[in-house]
Design goal:
With 392 residues, the chain is α/β, with parallel strands linked by helices. It has 17 helices and 11 strands. The longest helix is centred in the last third of the chain and has 22 residues, at 365-386. The radius of gyration is 20 Å and the shape is globular.
Amino acid sequence: MEKRHIAILGSTGSIGRQALDVIRQHREMFEVELLTANNSSELLIRQAIEFDVNAVVICNEDKYQEVREALEPHYIKVFAGMNSVCALAGGDNIDIVLTSMVGFSGLASTVAAIKAGKTIALANKETLVAAGQMVMELAAANNARILPVDSEHSAIFQCLMGSAGADIERIHLTASGGPFLNWTREQIAGATKNQALKHPKWNMGAKITIDSATMMNKSLEIIEARWLFGTPGEKINVVIHPESVIHSMVEYADGAVIAQMGHPDMREPIQFALCFPSRLNLSNKKLNFAELGSLSFHAPDLERFPALGLAYQALEKGGNMACIMNAANEAAVAAYLQDKIGFYDITDIVADCMAGPDFAVACDLDMIFETNETILAKAAEMIKAKAGRKVI
């Protein structure tokens, strides 16, 4: 495999760190050109030195001087701010851009890399949630390949590789059920952030872990799957699979179902995207079928996890509705992590924003950015009103 030149946007987060672990195992195959981080300056400095990168961007401009002084002796270029991320992601020295920034913040840089015709290893699901149709059309116009990194979407992609272009009957997105799978609604209503952050299977960042606890992550993944695979929402099904061994399945018209399985480890889908179409060795735990015992599946409970139904509403409405859903969720999750609101306040705030007057059928990328700002402000007012109350 010819050496690939990589940019990792969000290198200090969970996905970024695991991507660098993949690269450590195959140093001869990758050259890390660009790393970016928001606030984690010390880790960014260590990563940049270890991988002898060409450039880094620290988005928090207050930390620019610290990073610049630390990396100057290593002849590593240092930049600051999101505009620098967007400018450098499309550089001629980069083949693949791993977009692992958390939340809506990843959209602008992903769009910049797409416009430059880069291969996108997409770990930022909010990019396709907020602006899926526009992003996919932009990728087609610029011959920019988008390879999924989410474990579920990587699984679907791998299942489709053996289909010879056959029509999809249904996509089955599997969900672990998160930390509250067997809790009552009353118990979930009083859940603390520390309880919500204890995911039983996956090691993820705080925001994504809370999304898993509410099952909003599946709502985001439904929308992401709709755009990645050109499949309407009514053909995307969610099934609870607590063991997290089957990462997703594709069902065809003849009733055949192809599943992708593996030990729950994000390094596998990351490596698959970075190395595609090659499959390389990976130092990870492998499945032992004799030890697995049984695998279980059941339908999700929309009463205990109302966030799951919001994706279908957003897809039915179209326009900027999914962007509204995403922005409200980002604001509400941040407030929950700051102990300002209760667990079910998250979903209530999202639903209230979606029911508001900000929906527009026709929109472009500029409107998507405007919608995001508007909804963040409205959600902040709702959070202020709810602060200190626990809503069941």
